[in-house]
């Protein structure tokens, strides 16, 4: 189904299902496995979970028309000055790497609940609005894509993107 045809119910179901799948996956590993750094970038599974939580918290703030960057622990200026998403991700990694696993688990749960609540308040028409509707004070040009695409990419699409990397970290241990 094209992103433009995703309904609010579809979006919520995909977010919930993907979150549940992620939780089931990580429940099969020990805390030690989850906090052990590995891979070419030195990230642990905990680091991936903190990353997902941070982006999801930003999505929830965006939908509430709050400063998404502040919700992610960054300033808009810092985010704009970053050359690309990888540079932003390095900043987010640095701010989260010393958090405990318990803190990260709680942050992921909280971010997920925030996002679900924010999406539940949307109408079908709200899903078709563009980024600048939700973040009117952010400079730059709106690319015209409906916000639903942005939400997919930073919720269940993000879980699906990170799952193979998370599985690879376990395989390395």
Offer a concise description of the structure.
The chain is mainly alpha-helical and 173 residues long. Helix content is 68%, strand content 0%. The chain has a single domain (3-27, 40-172), classed as dinb family like domain (Four Helix Bundle (Hemerythrin (Met), subunit A), Up-down Bundle).
Quick tags:
about 170 residues; mainly alpha; Four Helix Bundle (Hemerythrin (Met), subunit A); 11 helices; about 70% helix; globular
Helix and strand topology:
Elements: H1 8-26, H2 31-35, H3 45-63, H4 68-71, H5 76-81, H6 85-96, H7 101-120, H8 124-128, H9 131-134, H10 147-153, H11 156-172
Walkthrough of the structure:
The chain has 173 residues and is mostly helical. It has one domain: Four Helix Bundle (Hemerythrin (Met), subunit A) (Up-down Bundle), CATH 1.20.120.450. Helix content is 68%, strand content 0%. The protein has 11 helices and no strands. Helix 1 packs parallel to helix 11 (156-172) and helix 3 (45-63) runs parallel beside helix 7 (101-120). It is globular. The N and C termini lie far apart (37 Å). The mean pLDDT is 93.
